[in-house]
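In the design runs reported in the main text, the only information available to the sequence generator was the tokenized backbone. The following block is the verbatim input for one such run; it is reproduced so that readers can re-run the procedure and compare outputs position by position.
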């Protein structure tokens, strides 16, 4: 039996109606598009593509934020816009 799953996409670009594989894979460097079943995590991904590292991860339903340099939240997000696209439904 197939299960419906909801996915979200976070971006600094608003009004997206098509999401292309323009991001760089953290695994092999290939082009990918990132989606998440966790809405909060998708919002955290609304950052400049040059900032290519993860600042948060969901674990057991709880968001865990970690900083890699001083004033990271301010540097990455202050004064910037982010857009959440979705939900997208798919069957798995």
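Verbatim output:
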């Amino acid at each position: 039996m197939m299960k419906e799953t909801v996915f979200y996409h976070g971006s600094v670009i608003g009004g997206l109606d098509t999401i292309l594989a323009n991001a760089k894979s953290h695994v092999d460097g290939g082009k990918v598009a990132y989606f998440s079943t966790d809405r909060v995590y998708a919002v955290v991904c609304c950052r400049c593509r040059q900032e290519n590292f993860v600042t948060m991860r969901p674990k057991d339903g709880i968001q865990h934020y970690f900083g890699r340099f001083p004033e990271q939240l301010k540097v990455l997000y202050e004064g910037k816009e982010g857009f959440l696209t979705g939900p997208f439904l798919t069957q798995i």
